[in-house]
Predict the 3D structure of the following.
Amino acid sequence: MKHLARRTICQIATVALAIAALECIAAGAKAADVQLSLSSRETYVGMPLTALVTINNAQSSQPPQFPAIDGVDIEAAGSPSRSSQTTIINGRMSHNESVTYAFELTPRREQKYIVPAMNVEVDGKTFTTEPTSFVAHKSETGDLMFVEVAGQKKEVFVGEPIKLTLKIWIRPYRDSRYDVTLSAGDTWSLVMEDRTDWGAFQPAIEELAKQRRQPIGREVLHLDDQGLDRSYYLYKIDHIVYPQHAGQLDPGDIQIVAAYPTGLERGRDFFSLSPRYSLSGMRPLAASAKVEPIDVKPVPTQGMPADYRGAIGRYEISTQAMPTKTKVGDPITLRLEIAGGERLDLLQAPPLASLSALTRDFKVAEEPLAGVVHGASKSFVATLRPLRTDVKQIPPIPFSSFDPETKEFVTVHSAPISIEVGPADELALSKIISAGGSNGASISAGEPTAEANPLTWQFRGPSLLESWHPPSDAALLTALAAPPLAFLGWLLMRQSRGWLQDSSMWRRWQARRLAARRLDRADSSEDVVRAAFGYVADRFGLNAASLTRHELVSQLQDRGVSPIAVEQWDDLLTECENAKYSGGATSVPQELARRARSCIAGFDRRSLSHGDTSCSA
């Protein structure tokens, strides 16, 4: 019993101490607060300092949004850091938890900067930091580094390519104690590429980094700040720009930042007798680029052709048409290939809908054409529909550009394409309607048709007044026997399902369902084409793999499909072909799939014998 009592007393004491400790922690817990601090109140232009935003004793908080500061580049410096600290002083325990967000502030001008107060949401409340300040000094580069931007020309036109060259001169560092001079490669490694603002040359720097290369420096003579020839490493970086606005060419605010050595230390490699050197000190250098003036002139309006669409340089244009033998109203796919010049991604197609030589003989869509770049050329696809049978050719297509060398507009033409245009298909009356009698006699044009009034087709003239006679016993027996016979037929069909799947009848029954499944999974215009070809092939018992657009149209025409429906099927397949050649910009797959479903629904709505299988666009 004594041992049991002693153990109980120990347990009670332990619980009491734990409760006391928790009370001390609760008593020592501090209220939440937010603090802003800077790693330094003084820095150099182009050299970053760190701003820390610390949130203490928060149950929940939102990441702070650092306010913008004019003339300062601000970037988040990694993920937030977390810390926890517990202290006991004179028996009192205090606990502090904090999360710290770091930001790098890189000044670009020599001046004093104010970091404004910022609001931070902590535990459902808004805390505001105190504003603070820092100053950025211009590094005294003296004659250690010079930066300049030069162009091939002093004058260019809007859109004309011009090669700019960024030139950086850096004085080689020489240590007289050890008689050591840094090489051109080592000197370039002193340039802080991530701290430098490269302006228009940023893509060129990124391309060098991707290739793991650096500019090659060569030793040249250059005037120092005293006007004397001194030895420098010269680095050149080229980049082609395409000015989009008239006025003075602006390559951006280019500022090169480097860490220049102030001394070397000599050491020795354990495995080598030759000495090795390391930098014992560095000083920041920051130099802004001097830009040679380059005047950007607008393209003149005098003498500008009506079909000019902003192309600069010299080009060639060629065309291809398919098919070259067609009928009035049938589509012809016209492919335009334009080669030469610069910036093909910005090149626009000729305005076909505005060319009178083309629109007088063809129906041309007015929508602008989307193109695809292939190496040194760009292709466009358009659809033409001949209007008359006397159209003998697709006329030459002009393409106009402005030549900055001659300062004149130049127009080139494609070669004409000969075509044959036959009359449009017209369905015979026998394909539209048929006689209702067993002898197959045709119906005269003036007689009413079953389609016009199916209720009175069998009752014309005096027969309308005849009295109705009840059905015969045979008719009643047939009506009673029909449902059981239909049920037996359904059972037989289920039993012979395997046979039906291999038959053409089964393909016709399943055509629409399979096409719907393919369209549901369609991700491109080619998928829509395959679904359309598969549907028609299943309906007519054809090989879908060997079908082409023109063969499909011919199959529909040969089977008496209405001209409207044939045209809509052809339009759908032509749109799919345009989307394929233009990178999908003509129409999204979902819209093409919707149109295909509409055509298929119209096809199934009525039998081919009625000649009405049109679909809505």
